[in-house]
Recover the amino acids of this structure.
């Protein structure tokens, strides 16, 4: 898959404060970016700018290929079953068939028929990650993907990211927890 | 693809009871009015059209809090924008879903309300026509208001204050049309069209501001 994501001199202003200024980096197929830094430094804002949800104060975001976002909010309808809630999003992209495989890949296939409101924090997180998998987007934007995950699930997350990169995808990961991303480019300021 | 969004709105309205409540509220007003005003059939028939319109307006306002706020908080709007949906098209889908949720049911309930209020059959036709033209405007206004007050404290009460001035023209021309005023139905259609055409942009801009 062809993929690309680049920040060109990007400056971010939030709440009257410059969070970062003149940030430049580029990721090509198979590469990963690791956004590091303490709380409040602007990691989430960087992910939201990369997703096109926030307009940067200055600079440009360029890229190639569809982007999939994993943010703090799960965006799954609480009253629906897991498979139906994910199916809505996959259906928007015409990829409903990918849901079962994605649920299997994150280890939630057994509880596909459980309503989303009954899921635990970690399960919800993995469900949101399953949406990223099912989207088939070449560029993954993951904001704190390891939050609420147990050790086994973090290993699963690392394995899925590695597979995605091996297939030529890009992963931009903002985290304050250790996630093993071999050869990832560190982005900090 | 927008069909999927409209369908989701409808399904959420069903499952949260948002479909039954406005209609129940609407009928409640129609039931209470004759008790409050007294059983004078001619008086009821004269004010019936206005009562139905005021009740319809308030019924359209009832589900305002669940139209945009839950989606903004749960990240659904973010995910839609990442997938390339424009804010205005999301708002337009919400308007259509909101209208389908309460519009047709409200028209059906109006027949019951008209009987309770002694509205004669000929006037009922005009009221139904007026509501069919005016309710899309009410739905559009409801979504725009919901987007404007999303995430604020006391959003429900604030929504009423924000929406009311814009709903007043609909109310004047709607009630006027049901009273047989010539030309009122055309002015009602003009106001409704203006709201339907303008509100997606207003709601879209409000949702975009809410993200920043």
């Amino acid at each position: 898959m062809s993929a690309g994501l680049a920040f060109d001199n990007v400056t971010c202003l939030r709440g009257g404060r410059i969070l970062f200024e003149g940030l430049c980096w580029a990721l090509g197929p198979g590469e990963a970016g690791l956004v590091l830094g303490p709380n409040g430094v602007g990691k989430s804002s960087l992910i939201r700018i990369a997703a096109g949800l926030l307009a940067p104060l200055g600079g440009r975001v360029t890229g190639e290929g569809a982007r999939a976002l994993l943010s703090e909010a799960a965006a799954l309808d609480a009253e629906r079953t897991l498979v139906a809630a994910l199916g809505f999003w996959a259906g928007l992209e015409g990829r409903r068939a990918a849901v079962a495989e994605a649920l299997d890949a994150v280890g939630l296939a057994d509880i596909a028929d459980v309503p989303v409101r009954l899921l635990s924090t970690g399960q919800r997180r993995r469900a949101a990650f399953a949406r990223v998998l099912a989207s088939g987007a070449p560029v993954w934007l993951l904001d704190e993907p390891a939050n609420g995950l147990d050790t086994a699930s973090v290993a699963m997350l690392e394995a899925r990211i590695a597979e995605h990169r091996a297939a030529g995808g890009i992963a931009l990961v903002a985290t304050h927890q250790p996630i093993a991303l071999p050869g990832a480019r560190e982005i900090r300021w | 693809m927008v069909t999927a969004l409209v369908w989701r709105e409808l399904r959420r309205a069903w499952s949260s009871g948002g479909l039954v409540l406005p209609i129940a509220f609407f009928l409640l007003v129609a039931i209470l009015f004759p008790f409050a005003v007294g059983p004078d059939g001619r008086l009821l028939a004269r004010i019936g059209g206005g009562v139905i319109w005021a009740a319809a307006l308030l019924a359209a306002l009832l589900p305002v809090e669940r139209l945009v706020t839950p989606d903004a908080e749960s990240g659904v709007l973010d995910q839609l924008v990442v997938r390339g949906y424009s804010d205005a098209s999301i708002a337009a889908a919400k308007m259509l879903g909101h209208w389908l949720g309460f519009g047709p049911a409200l028209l059906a309930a109006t027949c019951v309300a008209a009987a309770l209020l002694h509205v004669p059959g000929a006037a009922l036709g005009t009221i139904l026509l007026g509501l069919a033209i005016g309710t899309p405007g009410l739905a559009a206004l409801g979504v725009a208001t919901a987007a404007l007050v999303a995430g604020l404290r006391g959003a429900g009460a604030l929504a009423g204050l924000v929406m009311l001035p814009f709903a007043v023209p609909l109310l004047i021309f709607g009630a006027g049309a049901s009273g047989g005023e010539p030309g009122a139905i055309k002015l009602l259609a003009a106001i409704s069209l203006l709201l339907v055409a303008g509100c997606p942009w207003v709601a879209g801009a409000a949702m975009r501001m809410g993200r920043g």
In short: The CA atoms of residues 28 and 55 of chain B lie 9 Å apart. The mean pLDDT of chain B is 91. Residues 2-211 of chain B form one domain.
